[in-house]
Structure formats: structure tokens, C-alpha cells
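Quarterly update, task 2.4: flavin-adenine dinucleotide-bound model.
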Amino acid sequence: MEAFDAIIVGGGAAAWSAAIYARRYNLETLLIEEEFGGETSRAGIIENYPGFARIDGFDLMDKMKGQAVTLGVRLVDGRAALVQNRYHCFRVRVGKDAFQGKTIILATGMEHRKLGLSKEDALKGKGIHYCATCDGPLFKGKRVAVVGGGDSAVKWANQLSDMGAAQVTLIVREPDLSRAEPINRARLEGKRNVDVLFGNEIVELIGDARLEAVRLKHPSETGDRIALDAVFVAIGAVPRGELPGQLGVRLDAFGQVEVDPRTLATSVDGVFAAGDVTNASGAFKQIVTGAAQGAIAATSAYHDVTTHPATCGLHAVPVVGLLPASTPPARRRASATKKRRA
Ligand SMILES: Cc1cc2nc3c(=O)[nH]c(=O)nc-3n(C[C@H](O)[C@H](O)[C@H](O)COP(=O)(O)OP(=O)(O)OC[C@H]3O[C@@H](n4cnc5c(N)ncnc54)[C@H](O)[C@@H]3O)c2cc1C
């Protein structure tokens, strides 16, 4: 069985950032990715990741992945289905293959909440959608609704309007949009084809082969039924608990993996976690927080590997100091400047 110093499970910002750092620490690193790029790759245009004033989330993730692959991370496409802890040696099964690692970093993110209505599963992809970036272009010239009152819902309503939907209805359970970023709320106010229904929710999905309409809890001026071609569900997400459960790591009341914020260590020795699956930055879950946590988790995995005796049949990696790069960037730049001046 192939053995690694660090096995990273995930394919989002937290996982790829962890992979970049792990490789710079010379750790033999495996990354198992079920879906390329995680939520960021489907988030549309990103305007708050430092260094990029405006970048498509897909392109941002492509850059992170490219950087890690260049550094020599081993990539396996697939779902890590079973994780076992054998005395600080972790066995991970992906399909018919199995891998082992001295440490494991969980960066599995969150999964979308569903409306919980009958027909929701049957109409998935036939008018019920969970990603505006992916499916929005199919509804050019059509009537769509977004359900939710957070920042993702407001972003999606703006995005669907920009993608050419004829009419966008934002259905919000709360009385206001205070949970959304002011910049996204201001953009929404400027849209002529977006209307917002506050204090309302969908109670029934109507249609058999495809979604045709929805019934509202509280009738609007035009009645309790709205004809729609699609509903985009943006009502939050819950941390993916399967692998944390298999490893027996402690979760908080919201199902998030509890971590030490300084090290990203979980309650189980050798298991680290980063990104949206954790409680590291509370409810504030962003690409930049996920990437930062991936970096910290990889650093802790490196310290763990160097302080434990060889496990999984691997030798201890050589200690390369606290920072992995042989020459710190600041010093490299200073010496380059000196050379240019000379
Ligand atoms: C609509 C929307 C818009 C957003 N806009 C912004 C924004 O503008 N700016 C910003 O900073 N943030 C934004 N975010 C939040 C941001 O996308 C997340 O905070 C970020 O993606 C978290 O990264 P992550 O790596 O923790 O998890 P994720 O991106 O969720 O990645 C988790 C990955 O783990 C993989 N995975 C899960 N289980 C397994 C398994 N068993 N085996 C293998 N792989 C597995 C998944 O396939 C996925 O690739 C937005 C989110 C949404 C939904």
C-alpha cells in the first residue's frame, strides 16, 4: 500500500493551500479530491481574495491546484469513503484503492441544505438547482427564484439577473437582508428585474417532469402561487460529518470539527482540519480563511511528522527548519535588487 506523510482530503481552497505548504515542507503528500475546486469554483466572480481584484472562482482554484501540482503533490480523483486510524497511521479507501498516511488533513467543506419539500429530489436538475454559476445560464429569458437571505442568495440573484434571466424573485424568510454583504445588497437594489419577497417561504413545489410553479406560505399581491422555471436554493450548508465521524474527532453543537485555532489540530492525534468543515473562524467562512487554515494545518502536520517516530513503514522526514523555503522571499528579493543595482 502506498504510504504518505500527509493525506489531504478535499479539493477546495483549504485543501489546495494545505497541499502547497505540505510540499514546501518536503512532505510526501497525497490529495484526494472528489470535485474540482470545491465551492469556490462554483461561486462565480470573486472580488475579495487578496491579490486579485476580480477573478472567476474556477480560475482561482485552477491557479491554486496548478501551483500545488507543480510542487509535486500526488492527486487522486475520487471520494475518500473510509478512513481508519491504526495507531497514528491513517488508512484511506478511495474506490478499490487504499492509501496510508502518517497524518491526515480534513478539508471536506460543507454540503448544501435542502428545502425539505416533497418532489425536491425528483425535480433536482429539472428546475431545482443548488448552483447558480453552474446552471444559471440555462435560464436565460426565463423566470427564476432564489431562496435564502444570506450573502450567497443575494450574490446568486445578482448573477442570475446578469446572466439574462427574465425575472428573478428572491424569497427571504427574514424581514431584511442584513446577513448579506453591503456591496452585494447595493448591487441588488440597482437591478430592475429582481423583486424581493420578505417574510415568506416556499411550501410546495408544483410540476412533475419539470418544475412549473411554487406555492408560497403567505400569498403575495398576485396570490399564493408563482409560475417559475427554476428555483435556486441558497439556504446555507452543514459541515460534512462522515469522515470526522469515522475518525471520532470531536464536533461542536453545529456539527463543525472542533480545532485548536493556533494549530488546527483536532481532538484525535495526527488528525488536522481546515476550512469550512471546522469551527476555526466561527460562522465567517471565506476562501481566504480556508486558505490560511490549510497553511496552518500543513505546518502542524509537518511538526507532527517530524516529532513522531516513523509510522506507516515510512522514515521520519528530515527537519528543514521552521520555514521550508531555503531562502526567505524577502532576502531573495533584497539580493536580486542588489544584483540588479550592480
Ligand atoms: C455561492 C457562494 C458564493 C461565495 N462567494 C465567496 C466570495 O465571493 N468570497 C469568498 O471568500 N468566499 C465565498 N464563498 C465561500 C467559499 O466558497 C468557501 O468559504 C470556501 O469554498 C471554503 O473552502 P473549503 O476548502 O473549506 O471547502 P469547499 O470549497 O467546500 O471544498 C470542499 C471539497 O472537499 C471535497 N470533498 C468532500 N468530501 C470528500 C471526500 N470524502 N473525498 C474527497 N473529497 C471530498 C469536495 O468535493 C470539495 O471539493 C462563497 C460560497 C458560496 C456557496
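Highlight for this quarter: The pocket of flavin-adenine dinucleotide is lined by residues 9-15, 32-35, 38-40, 43, 46, 48, 79-80, 107-110, 152, 155, 240, 243, 275-276, 285-288, 290 (CB under 6 Å).
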